[in-house]
Amino acid sequence: MRGIGPDFKYALRTLARSPLFTLAAVFSLALGIGANTAIFTLMDQLLLRLLPVKDPAQLVMIWSNGPHMGNNNGDRAQSYPMYQAYQKQASFFSHVFCRYLDSASLSVDGQTERVISEMVSGNYFDALGVKPAVGRVFSPELDDRTYKGHPTVVLSYDYWLNRFGGKASIVGQKVLVNNYPMTIVGVSAPGFLGLDPARSPQIRVPIQMAPIMTPGRDSMGEYRSQWIQMFARLKPGETVDTARGKLQAIFTRQLEYESTLPGLRTASKYQMDRFFKRKVRLEQASNGYSDIRNDFGKALIVLMSMVGLVLLIACANVAGLLVARAVARQKELAVRLAIGASRKQLIRQLLVESLLLSIGGALLGIVLSVWTIKGLIGFLPEHGTPLMLTASPDLRILLFNLLLAVLTGLLFGVAPAFFATRIDQWNVLKDAGGAVSGTGGGVRLRKILVTAQVALSFLLLAGAALFSRSLGNLKGTSTGIQGMSNLVTFQVNPSLNGYTVEREKAFYQELLANVRGLPGVQTAAVASVPILHGWEWDSSMSVEGHQNKDGEDIQAFMNALSPGYFQTMGIPVLEGRDLRDSDIGDDVKVAVVNRAFSEYYFGKGSPIGRHIGFGGGPDTKLSIEIVGMVENTLYEGPREGVHRQVFVPRFQSKFPGSVAYYVRGSMDTKSMMAGLREAVRRLDPRLPLYEVTTLENQLDQTLSTERIIAALSIAFGCLATLLAAIGLYGVMAFVAARRTREVGLRMALGAQPFDVLRLMMREVIILLVAGLAVGVPSAYALSKYISSQMFNVKVNDPWLGLAVIGLLAGVALLAGFLPARRASTVDPLEALRYE
Asked: Which residues belong to any copy of the ABC3 transporter permease C-terminal domain (predicted)?
């Protein structure tokens, strides 16, 4: 039997003789395959890929639900004492280990930079089975015994290469971390990024050094402080379900012990009942944990569904082109059958041509996917942490691309191949033209393909309309802040440079005064929590005259501000006054509340002069006087809406650490940012400045998920509509060509051009209606799966559906009108001589 090699050679020659057809098919497939490859590349890195560690399937993540009656710092956070309890008592784990990701200042040879650091337990590397590339990594014996007694650093492999040139002599070198002397003891193995596939720390430090790494927030011994993330490795024979039951028993005993400590003595019976009902959560962690994954995982799944539809439309388009080409090649195929070729051989030959087209589309699609991924990564917020996602395809992506190419080639090639080989040799070889068998079948098949394209295009356009309106609603939500495009924000954290609390307070005040004195600056202020950032600081509150009820939400979102904040942000003071310099002290004595807080607790009455206190227990001191009420503003972002808020003075020893500056000026923002950097540099050239942007850009980053989905759904919807329009144009041109003799006869018998035009457009309308008859119910049925992604949008909004139908109908009618118009102007004599 002849090998497949000659088929490939013949296919290459055949495709080379039809360059326009080949380019059109390859480019259509490249768009579909490239989009699928791009989204799959990000899905693989964020959702699918296992951690490059020893036996990743044995890794689990531990956290708990329910009220912990304390403060919380991060997702799925736990207290350090709870970690210690698990480590001592959970014998069904071979390792229990923990981590905490934060930023730090690293000084080497007099140069200081802001780096991403990770505090880890001493058994972190042992538990993951990660070896050093140079030097050593941490161990329980050397790096997890003494509080504040392990000033050692392990560098990540990439940071070692980029910052220290890959020099082995770096081991043993002294550096300053947060202005505290530490020693570099090693470099972690290449390829190991950590437990987060999207963000990798540049340095790791033992968690016993927490007082140095998180100045002012030492929570090592605090039961009510949730801040570390906890992981474990299952022993052989253990499963997630069996371990969960055993772990719950330890967790419950720990809760019983914590209930005897002073921090819970003032809690009510209702609060304690809820506290004891907390459950341990255990989840497979073979691919780590990532907040980027949590934020964008659903978006990637939605986008993967969309690009799958785009690929189907591209396949339908190319299949339509192959059907038309098969009609043109009927005589060639008939001759080959007549001289002894079997139908099986011809089908194989045609499928080889389809596979070559799809492989060409896949190769071009790889290039398009790299560009697409780079654009997608640009949408993702970094928040000062370098993203480790890459646009470069690896072996897994190349295999996915190849598999997709093969499946695509078969998908669009099989039906045209079977159609093309169903030939009436007798009529074809007699050159009987329009009587050739299979002509009607070719038209029917292309019409079915176009109907499918219209239906799929409607799905994508409807999705694009919904996501676009949702994004518009989010961006159109009033933030309560005026002129955000002219409001520059940046963050600094002098505590990471070893500042004492008193020195830090003096620095903040001096920097604020200097910023206010810059040319073009109108006003400036400071806030402890950057707004529209997704971050939060909340606290339960007790309010004068209000009796807290069981189950009542008594949380208020907090911020600590400098005087002048409301003026800088353009937030109206509705009643009372702003914060003043005289309010600043070691204790919080006054506060400003927002309208939502006032209305909840005081109705239409005035909040001025009323008293509040931190905490919800009966013994809470109501020592804070409300001196002002301001208009509502957004805190985390538009999706979370307006919260009850309480604002207190900023420059106090109670609130050390990072702050966000807000500066409003009359100059362009680039010049203002340069002046702000210089103002910080003059006070401390070693102090890194970060998150420098306008508040408008910050809002865009907060809505990055919605922006990605909306932008790409519009792009994919437009692409799908264009491909469907091309397909419809091709069908109508094909139909018009096959009916040329019929049109000439009709016109010779007295038909007018308008009659021919109406006849042809009737075909277009039938195809359009058939496609919509499939697409509209399908879109309605699928809409419930994306409803959770919407914001103030009805997924079954009839007006939105009509708008999409109108757009698709307009494009379809235009695509069909061009060949129909050409057919209506044909010369009857020429038409009767056709073929």
From this structure: 305-423, 715-828
Q: What is the DSSP letter of 339?
A: T
What does the alpha-carbon distance between residue 797 and residue 759 come to, in Å, rounded to a whole number?
34
Q: Render the burial of 516-534: b for 16+ CB within 10 Å, e for the rest.
A: bebeebebbbbbbbbbbbb
Higher pLDDT, 624 or 505: 624
- Cα angle 389, 785, 771 (rounded to 5 degrees) comes to 105
Under DSSP, is residue 112 helix (H, G, I), strand (E, B) or coil? strand
Please give the torsion angle defined by the CA atoms of residues 8, 14, 18 and 20, in that order, rounded to the nearest 10 degrees: -10
Mean pLDDT across the stretch 717-737? 77
For residues 692, 696, 701 and 706, what is the CA-based torsion angle, rounded to 10 degrees? -170
* DSSP string for 454-493: HHHHHHHHHHHHHHHHHHHHHHHS--S-S-GGGEEEEEE-
Q: What is the mean pLDDT of residues 605-617?
A: 89
Contact residues for 341 (Cβ-Cβ < 8 A; gap 6+): none
Cα distance between residue 379 and residue 391, in whole Å: 14
Q: How confident is the model at residue 1 (pLDDT cuts 50, 70, 90)?
A: very low
For the chain, helix (H) and strand (E) counts, in that order, are 25, 23
Cα dihedral sign, 652-653-654-660: positive
Both tokens of residue 464?
């694009």
Q: What is the mean pLDDT of the chain?
A: 84
The H or E element containing residue 780 is helix 753-782
Beta strands (DSSP E) in 68-156 are 71-72, 93-108, 111-120, 132-135, 152-155
For residue 433, what pLDDT is reported?
Answer: 44
The residue to which tokens 């003026």 are assigned: 567
Q: Which residues of 122-154 are buried (b: 16+ CB within 10 A; e: fewer)?
A: bbbbbbbebebbbbbbbebeebbeeeeebbbbb
CB 458 within 8 A of CB 776: yes
Buried b (16+ CB within 10 A) or exposed e, 600-624: ebbeeeebbebebbbebbeebeeeb
Write the burial class of residue 799 (CB in 10 Å: 0-12 exposed, 13-18 middle, 19+ buried): exposed
Count CA within 13 A, CB hemisphere, residue 133. Answer: 19
CA distance 831 to 835: 9
Which of 815, 597, 611 minimizes the C-alpha distance to 721?
A: 815
Cα Rg, the chain, nearest whole Å: 34
Contact between residue 380 and residue 389 where contact means Cβ atoms under 8 Å apart: yes
C-alpha to C-alpha distances, 102 to 144, 151, 193, 215, 243, nearest whole angstrom: 19, 17, 15, 12, 30
For β-strands 225-226 and 152-155, DSSP reports them as unpaired
N-terminal to C-terminal alpha carbon distance within the chain: 39
Residue 516 token pair: 């206010």
Which residue carries 């993540």 as its tokens? 61
Integer Cα distance of 160 and 789 in angstroms: 40
Region 751-769: mean pLDDT is 81
Which residue, 59, 54, 227, is CA-closest to 131? 54
What band does 406 get if pLDDT is binned at 50, 70 and 90?
confident
Does residue 481 register a pLDDT over 60? yes
Q: At what angle do helices 291-328 and 439-476 cross, to 10 degrees?
A: 160
**Contact at 8 Å (CB) between 274 and 66?**
yes
pLDDT of residue 562: 92
Q: What is the pLDDT of residue 11?
A: 77
Burial 393-412 (b: 16+ CB within 10 A, else e): beeebeebbeebbeebbebb
- Contacts of 673 by beta carbon, 8 Å cutoff, 6+ apart: 488, 490, 692
State the pairing for strand pair 225-226/71-72.
parallel
The ranges assigned to domains in the chain are: 1-49+290-437, 56-286, 484-699
Q: What are the DSSP calls for 813-830, one per residue?
A: HHHHHHHHHHHHT--HHH
Q: Are strands 111-120 and 203-206 parallel, antiparallel or unpaired?
A: parallel
